[in-house]
Design a protein that fits this description.
- By secondary structure, this protein is an alpha+beta fold.
- Among the domains are: 60 residues, Arc Repressor Mutant, subunit A (Orthogonal Bundle), CATH 1.10.10; 102 residues, Glutaredoxin (3-Layer(aba) Sandwich), CATH 3.40.30.
- It is 51% helix and 8% strand.
- It contains nine helices and five strands.
- α1 runs antiparallel to α2.
- The longest helix has 32 residues.
- It starts with a helix and ends with a helix.
- Bound molecules: FE2/S2 (inorganic) cluster.
- The site of FE2/S2 (inorganic) cluster has 11 residues, from α5.
Length: 254
Amino acid sequence: MAIDDKTYDELREIAARYPQGRSGLLPMLHLVQSVEGKVTPEGIQVCAEILDISPAEVSGVATFYTMYKRRPVGDYHVGVCTNTLCAVMGGDLIFERLKEHLEVGNDETTPDGKVSLEHIECNAACDYAPVMMVNWEFMDNQTPESAVRLVDDLRAGNEVHSTRGPRLCTWREAERVLAGFPDDLADEGPSAGKASLAGVEIARTMGWTAPAGEASAPTGSTADTKVGAAEQADTARAESETKAEAGQAEEGKS
Ligand code: FES
């Protein structure tokens, strides 16, 4: 599918959201993926044209981040975290089991195009290890058995909900959301899980609070005075260095 006028307009709309248009490149590439199923040469060309940068610059970004795909992925892109904590908690086993069950390797898609598999790095969700992701939504506390059930449900077209988010949509739909076009599902599901909130709850029970630091000190405080004094000292040092350099330059002339 080619980049049509509607997509072209939406790419321009994304670029216009930022004071520097090129800051919009990441969501623009997500939009390209939502339309083309991957980052295509045409998508790279169009982004470069809109942002007035070179295709090589766009390509450099698209090949740096693993969320940008140069080959089509499945309707449901399944990531298994095999980073240290998830690995020892069962992530390696899950990944091996899914490869065997789906008969695909890393970064490969099932012949029906429904599921692709990728081993991924830490998702900052170690408190729910071992963690999987489907189209970037969390599936927490998985086992090899639950992982197999999950991919079977996805292939069968059954409705599946993230353990900490909304019902799962297709990869292309998720890519459109990442491009900044919401699907209004963001409020489905819990916003934070029990494990992530455990520390806060313990602190509340114990009456612990964060120590007051210099960063939070009110204006006119001792901290402010110290910062002001340090700035003055810096300015004085810079002035004296400038004078010394100017003096040396004068001596050099004479
Ligand atoms: S190691 Fe898997 S989420 Fe951190």
